[in-house]
Amino acid sequence: MRKSWRSGWVALGLALVGGFVPVAWSEDRVQVQEGEMAGYLLVPHEKVPESYNAGFSMYVAAWPLLKEYPGDRFQTGLFGTWMFAQHGNPKPADLYSDVEGGLGWWRDTRFATETPKFIMGGVALNFREWANGPGAGKSRDWDKPEGMYGVAQLSPWLLWPADGLNLKQGTCGELVGYGYLPLPLTDAKATTAGKEVPTGDHSWTLFLNTGNFKGPVAFFTPYFWSQVTAEKPELAGKFLDSRPSDPNKALQMETQYVPSVQAEDAQGETYARIAPTSFPRNGQGDSVLVHRVTAYHKSALWDQVKAWFEGGAPASGVINPSALALHTFKGGGGSTWKIYRPDTPNEQKVPLAWNSFATPVALDEHTYGYRWNYDMVTKTDSKNGGLATLPEFFHLVKDDQQKETWVVVQPKDVPAETGLAQVKFQRPQGVRPEPYVTPDDPKSVWKSPGPVAGPFQAHLGDGSVVTYFWYRFADQPALLNADLTPAERESLQARVEKLHRNWKKDQEYLPAPALGKLAEIDPALVLTPPPGLEVGYVPIATRQAAKD
Fold it and tell me: What is the pTM (predicted TM-score) of this model?
């Protein structure tokens, strides 16, 4: 039986969790119900030979997905991938471990804005811990540092905040080049945490190509992957510390929560509204989203660096262009985005008619994006670039097979009694983020042997202030928790000093993009080392807090 609606609306001025403000309800029950939109945008691409198993790189667009940051339930990546260790068939069961970071917003982001941040996202066995960057991981409790020591700082020119690496505020459609390649920074070990279990010599290193910083940034310590084998020796040799990478990876955009609302009209028809959601728009009206997805052979970089560390000529750091394979695009792909209330079972979540307004295309054989139906999608502009803003309103209907679908409906055709037109998706007000603080115990690895200079401060575009110190590279906290002997750390120190002398932040490393403009890192994070600390020292963040 359809329910009748009473007249008499009551204004509601409370910002609810989820970042929206419904401004109307009926006298007998709330008219507008909180919901969400989530799912994957799928990017098919051609495979490359399995021998290109020494890492990858790609260029991905960075842009403000939502018009206004809606609060800490918002979680979505932008386009990215999952780099797993390469195994033969059959692949091991119950052995999830990979690198799956990238650009986006996460529920534990404390200093979020409309501009995305970058995290490294290394996952140890079955999510027992993960590492997002130097000093950042699954836990926020230094007494139980799950992944917080999993990444070591390598660059002396780039500061990594605990909340993620900031892009320059207002980034809108520019490309971030990033990838992971193994470097032989440490030697393979016959023991792990005192047990006769081996740890490999692969230090998977994040390389960036941006407008104001290029080159290696930080690396996952081999011990981050292998430490579980001290208690599970049967898993030795199965993780990225010793195995190559699978070159044929999934490429997707994973969205876990975009706020939405829904309501019924007087006839019982259901309508929904999503928070204003946009994609970057170029001069032709298309969205360039992924470019030059590349897989590398070990001769791309590893061989030259290893020979250098063993006494040979310095390696330039430039990727060998004859040792790479480019994935190609042919278009196609799709969306699993669905709109639903939070308590909806998976089998009852209803997809939206994505293909009615978005067409996935290969803009060239190495570039993937979307072409839009501008009868439904709106061309909008920000001061930093053009956007294609998706339809906001949808109507729940059944197709010829009686399957439910959310189809686009014009705002004027949404019945007024639903109250959806009055809903505002807003940033929650009056929320002061909790600061990130590292241990202050004088006996901790943060204080003994401790830094050599500081404190210094960086004032970021997200409204936070990062306090940091300069540490001798081998004395940084992550390496004091990397299962390395003093002699092993000194060997590592000597190798990194070679890198610091020869590899600079403004030279080319990753192959350059063939189109578009490079995004920039927040300028406050691009540093000049203090005099005397240019070689063999790195900046380490010890605190990140809201600006007073």
Answer: 0.94
